[in-house]
Design goal:
The protein is an alpha/beta fold. It has helices at about 15-20, 35-45, 60-65, 70, 85-90, 100-120, 145-160, 170-180, 180-185, 195-210, and strands at about 1-5, 10-15, 50-55, 80-85, 125-130, 165, 210.
Length: about 220
């Protein structure tokens, strides 16, 4: 994935992206990986002229992002889209009648595909897809795998189908948690990154970016 001068970068997703941003300030980036990436890029390329937007909203599912896609993505016309969604499609439906069902996976895939179709039809083609993840603390999070794992595979398939760059966060968080602990990366809920977890996401994004700073 290449960045060039004056690129607009949009971070779109749920609470992991949101990370307590001030929604009254359209340029506030919150306190998570979006802020870390923007700060690192500003330090590395102080004259590059990048513009950053954070449009994460806590609690969002894929359908919520689709409903606000025009306002929070297409109207902003980003050059680069960093998109993460899916954990709430599992978390908010845990224990429900469709949890882990083929119907739930099919619905998620259809919605996610609509998002990517609309985005790419708008000419936004430099896209990072960040797969949803969960760590096994508390222990009941392990029961989410029956529902989340198919969604992770869907994100991977769609990344290939739409020529997106994939950030395989589920595997990366699992790997890192072996070296430390789940709590070190996602605290007490297995989902929301700690500062160390946000740093992991930001560093992995930075490692995958290439820079062509001679202009578009």
């Amino acid at each position: 994935m290449k960045l060039v001068k004056n690129d607009t970068v949009l971070f779109l997703g749920d609470s992991i992206t949101d990370c307590d941003r001030d929604r009254q300030d359209p340029h506030d980036l919150g306190h998570g990986f979006a802020r870390l990436v923007a700060d690192q890029l500003a330090e590395k390329f102080p004259t590059a002229g990048f513009t950053f937007y954070n449009r994460g909203i806590g609690g969002n599912k894929a359908a919520d992002v689709l409903a606000r896609l025009q306002e929070d993505c297409l109207q902003l016309a980003p050059d680069v889209l960093v998109f993460m969604i899916g954990i709430n499609d599992t978390w908010h439906n845990a224990g429900g009648p469709d949890f882990g069902s083929e119907a739930a996976a099919t619905s998620f895939e259809a919605t996610y595909r609509q998002i990517l179709e609309q985005v790419t039809q708008q000419g936004i083609t430099r896209i990072f897809l960040l797969e949803p993840f969960v760590l096994p603390y508390p222990e009941d999070r392990q029961t989410w795998r029956i529902d989340l794992d198919p969604k992770i595979q869907i994100v991977r398939r769609l990344a290939a189908a739409f020529h997106c760059q994939l950030l395989p966060l589920d595997g990366l968080f699992a790997e890192a948690s072996v070296a430390s602990s789940p709590q070190a990366l996602t605290g007490d809920d297995g989902v929301h990154p700690t500062p160390a977890g946000h740093a992991l996401i930001a560093n992995q994004l930075m490692a995958r970016l290439a820079f062509l700073l001679k202009g578009k």
